Request: fold
Amino acid sequence: MPAGSLTAPPVNATLGASADVSATSAMQQSAAFFAAADRCLTERPCVDGLLSIVFAPGIVCSALSIELGLKAMIIHSG
Reply:
């Protein structure tokens, strides 16, 4: 393969049920990261009476949730 050329790996047509399991697993992981993002981005009261939010981890979890959800759709569609 020449340097600088990017090609997608060949798709194995014999995946069958394995692809469905992978898509389900990816969607479950997506839902888990979405729940984690929701927890991080929800304002919570602190001891001193101020509100706390964990912004950066919430954004990272949101991005991972979206990425895994899109990958699940790609795996499911074949």
